[in-house]
Amino acid sequence: MKKISLITFMLFAVFAKAQEKPKQSYSFSLQQAIDHAIQNNYQAINAGRDIEIAKQKKWETTAMGLPQINGLISYQNNFKQQTSLIPAEIFGGTPGEFAEVTFGTKHNVNSSLTLSQLLFDGSYIVALQASKTYLEFYKNYKKKTDTDVREMIINSYGSVLLANENALILEKNKTILEKTVFETNEIYKNGFIEEENVEQLKITLTSVKSNLNYINRLKEISLKMLKINLGVNLEDDLIITDKLDNLAINNMDLALSATDFNVKNNINYAISNNFVDQRTLELKLQKSKALPTLSAAVNFGYNSFSDTFTFLNSDQRWFNYSNLGVNLNIPIFSSFARSAKTQQAKIELDKAKTLLTQAEEQLKLQYQNAKSDYEFSIEQYNSSKESLKLAERIEYKQQIKFREGLSSSFDFTEAQRQLYTSQQNFLQTMVDVINKKATLEKIISK
Q1: What is the pLDDT of residue 183?
Q2: For residues 332-344, b (16+ Cβ closer than 10 Å) or e, as one string?
């Protein structure tokens, strides 16, 4: 019994393993990551599906004005027929008395085919125009999603690079600091310096190790976030091939900030304009409801009657009928309800136009801010680069003075902290250059 259970468990494990999605490996530059995300990011996928839904919605609206064919088959069983009273004298009875009679048969069957066609309806014409606007909105929304995904990938890709570079620098600092602590401890053992000098360095080393552990955890989290944004499984392998310093240098383009900003090229402006178009069509829709509607229908069918269910017999009689109908519906008076709805639609249109103006002004301000932030990020990069060089020279000089006994451990550790801060600032400015350029490009729709 145990043997059977073991075999069953092994078979189940093999089957479960076979059902698992195979692990994949990816290697992306920043541009490759952007291209992959636009196709595979979860938001981008659903935005594409929204376009397909809008296309189907457009056809659904179009089909409303095309010929419609409907079939009907009905069966009625009058198991208790209605009784009526008629004057008895019709059948030779006593005048003034009534006879009880039933009309019709117990079983009735009717089958028909109806062809209907909308000939004129003002609201249908408006609905066709609205379906095009509806589709245009979701196409613009897909573009907006793609730009958002692009910016998101640039930010998350940069976060991974920043974490990786931070880890490398902290690992290097830790190695150098461990060597310095060891050498300083040996000097202390020989009685040439005080124990406080060793302890001061150990405090700095502990801080560096703690930061390194944090950055290593952050590396894993940043990489997983990038995987989610790319639309790949968290278990898949991902390698990023671009280097932070190369990306920063390649993204320094002050000519970009000199580009003329046309607010109408911005996708958010286009979407706000879509809302104006929608509200315009809603106003037209309310006005169109004051127009008459005209439709026509052709019916063709058979019915049959019997006191017993004999409709499947070959000799059962069926009676044909057909008719043509035309309906003209003319709105005359609605107690000003249509007028109230039209006024509401007009107010909504005015609101949409106001929101469009607001969006235009906000985009102009966002452009100025993004332009300023991008230019400042380049200035900060150059400034922090020079500060890092100075911090490296100061730390090197303090290290020599400390080893020769010309400087205290406090001055040396302060120089180290200043160096570590300059290193972090320089890495951050590189990421800022990349991210701020992405923000500016998003606004000018480049």
Answers
A1: 86
A2: eeeeeeeeebbee
C-alpha distances (whole Å) from 379 to each of 260, 376, 426, 442 are 22, 5, 12, 21
The token pair that represents 333 in the structure block: 């008076």
* pLDDT tens-digit series, residues 5-20: 544 554 455 444 445 5
Which pLDDT tens digit goes with each residue over 235-282?
999 999 999 999 999 999 888 877 789 999 999 999 999 999 999 999
CB-based contacts of 306, cutoff 8 Å, min separation 6: 105, 106, 107, 316
Q: Nearest-CA neighbor of 224 among 238, 214, 234, 237?
A: 234
Residues 323 and 401 placed together within one structural domain of the fold: no
The 3-state secondary structure of the chain, one letter per residue: CHHHHHHHHHHHHHHHHHHCCCCCEEEECHHHHHHHHHHHCHHHHHHHHHHHHHHHHHHHHHHCCCCEEEEEEEEEECCCCCEEEEEHHHHCCCCCCEEEEECCCCEEEEEEEEEEEEEECHHHHHHHHHHHHHHHHHHHHHHHHHHHHHHHHHHHHHHHHHHHHHHHHHHHHHHHHHHHHHHHHHHHHCCCCCHHHHHHHHHHHHHHHHHHHHHHHHHHHHHHHHHHHHCCCCCCEEEECCCHHHHHHHCCCHHHHCCCCCHHHCHHHHHHHHHHHHHHHHHHHHHHCCCCEEEEEEEEEEEEEECCCCCCCCCCCCEEEEEEEEEEECCCCCCCHHHHHHHHHHHHHHHHHHHHHHHHHHHHHHHHHHHHHHHHHHHHHHHHHHHHHHHHHHHHHHHHHHHCCCCCHHHHHHHHHHHHHHHHHHHHHHHHHHHHHHHHHHHHCC
Single-letter residue type at 274: N
In the chain, how many domains are there?
A: 2
Q: Would 9 be classed as within a structural domain?
A: no
Q: What angle do CA 58, 60, 62 make, to 5 degrees?
A: 70
Classify residue 6: in a domain, yes or no. Answer: no
- Name residue, tokens 């209605």: 82
Angle at which helices 195-230 and 30-40 pack, to 10 degrees?
40
Which residues constitute the domain of residue 106?
73-119+296-330
Pair (440, 376) in one structural domain: yes
What CATH number did the domain enclosing 187 receive?
A: 1.20.1600.10
Q: Are residues 42 and 92 in the same domain?
A: no
Same domain, 95 and 32: no
pTM value is 0.83
